[in-house]
Amino acid sequence: EIVMTQSPATLSVSPGERATLSCRASQSVSSNLAWYQQKPGQAPRLLIYGASTRVTGIPARFSGSGSGTDFTLTISSLQSEDFAVYYCQQYKDWPLTFGGGTKVEI
Amino acid sequence: EVQLVESGGGLVKPGGSLRLSCAASGFTFSDYSMNWVRQAPGKGLEWVSSISTRSSYIYYADSVKGRFTISRDNAKNSLFLQMTGLRAEDTAVYYCARAVPAAGIDYWGQGTLVTVSS
Questions:
Q1: Which of A85, A86, A91 to mutate: most B Cβ within 10 Å?
Q2: Percentages helix, strand, coil for chain B, rounded to the nearest 5?
Q3: Neighbouring residues of A83: CB distance < 8 A, sequence distance ≥ 6
Q4: What is the DSSP string of chain A?
Q5: What single DSSP character describes residue B27?
Q6: Which of B22-26, B27-31, B101-105 is predicted with the least confidence, judged by mean pLDDT?
Q7: Whole-number pLDDT of residue B101
Q8: Of A69, B36, B43, B109, which has fewest CB within 10 angstroms of its CB?
Q9: Are B7 and B24 contacting, i.e. CB atoms less than 8 angstroms apart?
C-alpha cells in the first residue's frame, strides 16, 4: 500500500498570506496525485489532479507541483473561503490512499 | 448538473447489516467507474471500494474485504454498498463518488451517516 503523508497537520496563516502544503508518497506515484478541499459539514471538492492541473473553476491562486514522491499545494494569497482541510490522494495504485490532511486555519 | 445522492445510512448494532444506495444523475452513469469513500467522525478520508463501468473490476480496502460488497445497476443509474458484519470502527459518513481516469475523484455526494453501536 502506498502511504501518503501530509505536513504540517495544521497550518496557521493570515488572510492574504501564502500557504504551502506538503504531501509525500511512500513510493513513486508519478503524477497520479489529486488535491481536495473539505470544509466543515461538506463533501470534499477536487482542486487539482495530475499533480498540477487545476480543475475548471478553481481559482488560479491554487497551484500544485511535484512528481514521484514529493508534492506541494500552494495557495498564493489566502482568502477567507480557503480556510479548510486539504487532502492529497494517490490514484496510481490500489488501494487508493489519502493523506491525513492539513488543516489551514486563521 | 452532476448529482450523487446517498441513502440507506442509520444506526445498526455490531454484527448487523446495512445497504447503502447512491442515485446518480446529470451524467452518463455507465461511462464512469464509481467509488465509496468514508470518513469517521473528526477523521480523514478513507477509500472503501471501487467498481468499474461494467462491474468487471472491483476493489476493496483491506479493512472491509470480505464484509462489504459493491455493486451497480447501470439501467437504474445506481450504486450500492452492501455492508455486513458491521463493527464500531465502520462508523462514518459514507460518500458515493465518481472517478475520472487519471484525474482522481471529481464529484462527491453529500454522504450518508452509518453508526454502529449497541
A1: A91
A2: 10, 55, 40
A3: A104, A105, A106
A4: ---EEEE-SEEE--TTS-EEEEEEESS--TT-EEEEEE-TTS--EEEEETTTEEPTTS-TTEEEEEETTEEEEEESS--GGG-SEEEEEE-SSSSPEE---EEEE-
A5: S
A6: B101-105
A7: 83
A8: B43
A9: no
